[in-house]
Amino acid sequence: MPFANILVGAALLLFGRRLFWVFVAGVGFVVGAMLATEWFGERSDWVTLVVALGVGLIGALLSIFLQRIAAGVAGFLAGGHILYTVAFELKYDSWSWIAFLIGGILGALLVLALFDWALVILSALTGATVVVENVPLDQSTSAILWVVLIVLGVAVQGRQLSRRIARLKEAKS
């Protein structure tokens, strides 16, 4: 499962805003895998994969038909996953679900208020988090990789967004 998670994380990191449905489906996949692992344990890889794919598919379909609602849900899931992971890594296991809810609310508000840049930032954060979670490194190396990946993801997606805005301005002229 780590290879699939790394691929999903890389897609989120580099194309989360550009391919909105990838962001929503990817976040759904990651959170679905996290929930399935919590509920069923790590011994059921196929159940984890089925749940993750199911939640990802639902997210992709929502993003196609209900973009703003899907954006809010994806922002909630992405923000929740990020703070949950931070709380879990800091050994605040009993607070991790509260961190998930707080991160989720902040993520949803961020996406709804600043749609494009929020998608860039949240998808880069989520993608970097997923990649680092699935690469076996010590804690300090993981932290450095996480920051480098976030900067890379925001830079790549920010450039894509700037090009899109420039093309839209040219088309209006």
Please give a structural write-up.
This protein is an all-alpha fold. Helix 4 runs antiparallel to helix 5, helix 4 packs parallel to helix 6 and helix 6 runs antiparallel to helix 7. It has seven helices and no strands. The protein has one domain.
Strand portion, in percent?
Answer: under 5%
Overall spatial form: globular
Mean pLDDT: 84
Write down the oligomeric state.
single chain
List keywords for this structure.
0% strand; mainly alpha
Question: Gist?
Answer:
The protein is mainly alpha-helical and 173 residues long.
Secondary-structure map with pairings?
Elements: H1 2-15, H2 20-40, H3 45-65, H4 67-89, H5 96-113, H6 115-133, H7 139-172
